[in-house]
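Supplementary Methods. Inverse-folding protocol.

Structures were first reduced to a discrete structure-token string of length 121. This string, shown here, constituted the complete conditioning input.
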């Protein structure tokens, strides 16, 4: 027997980029369950998007400027970060064309050391 076992897509962490928002699947949301805000970043040379959870304590201590905080809304099976201007900047930098594709889906990893979810574009 030479079975090739399929992976469980529900357990695979993914980020979907729509024209107006970033959406994390349920598996990816586990790293954001206790936060209401995140930082969004781009490493242009490495072609990566970073999403960093920001704790309530970090907000209270004003570690990050309020202008850098982005709200994350968690549903039962997804997390959404609405930010049309961030997505527009991504589309300009990385050539994402939402007229031809409704969305772009990427597998993500979580860097535990730096507490950053990373999507490789």
């Amino acid at each position: 027997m030479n079975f090739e076992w399929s992976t469980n897509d529900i357990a695979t962490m993914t980020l979907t980029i729509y024209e107006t928002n970033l959406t994390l699947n349920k598996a990816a949301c586990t790293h954001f369950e206790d936060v209401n805000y995140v930082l969004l970043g781009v490493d242009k040379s490495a072609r990566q998007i970073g999403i960093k959870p920001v704790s309530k304590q970090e907000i209270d201590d004003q570690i990050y400027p309020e202008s850098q905080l982005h709200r994350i809304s968690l549903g039962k099976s997804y997390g959404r970060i609405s930010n049309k201007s961030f997505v527009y900047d991504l589309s300009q930098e990385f050539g994402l064309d939402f007229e031809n594709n409704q969305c772009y889906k990427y597998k993500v990893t979580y860097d535990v050391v730096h507490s950053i979810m990373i999507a490789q574009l």
